[in-house]
Amino acid sequence: MANLASTYRNQGRWDDAEKLEVQVIETRKTKLGEDHPSTLTSMANLALTYMNQGRWDDAKKLNVQVMETSKTKLGEDHPDTLTSMHNLAFTLQLQARHEEAFALIEECFKLREQVLGEEHSDTQSSLNMLSNWRAECE
């Protein structure tokens, strides 16, 4: 179901993706628990769908929940937590909450650099986002 939802997302079939993603989340919550990494991944996927639908508040709410739960369950510097932090920063930027977004992506970049190393693709992704946002502010 999660794979089919991903296919729908890739095809831009946002409503179909959303319906399946909600089912996947509910099933994973029941079978695996609310704080299981697979459940959190499903929630992050739904947040991505919400972003593509222009539902910024829904996306932000889910991204915050994923990040906070990841911090508690996996640790503040776990790669999955850092991915959720990156996603939340992007969502905040789309909501024109630039100061919050900038502070969060800066923190994410620093943690990724420490944990993953300077050359890691995730670290570079956060650095690119940070650099682009800096350039927009100048």
UniProtKB/TrEMBL annotation:
One Pfam family here: TPR_10
SUPFAM superfamilies assigned to the protein according to its UniProt record, in alphabetical order: TPR-like (SSF48452)
Alphabetized InterPro entries for the sequence: NLR-like, TPR-like_helical_dom_sf
PANTHER family referenced in this protein's UniProt entry, alphabetically: AAA+ ATPASE DOMAIN-CONTAINING PROTEIN-RELATED (PTHR46082:SF11), ATP/GTP-BINDING PROTEIN-RELATED (PTHR46082)
Protein name: Kinesin light chain
Organism, scientific name: Decorospora gaudefroyi
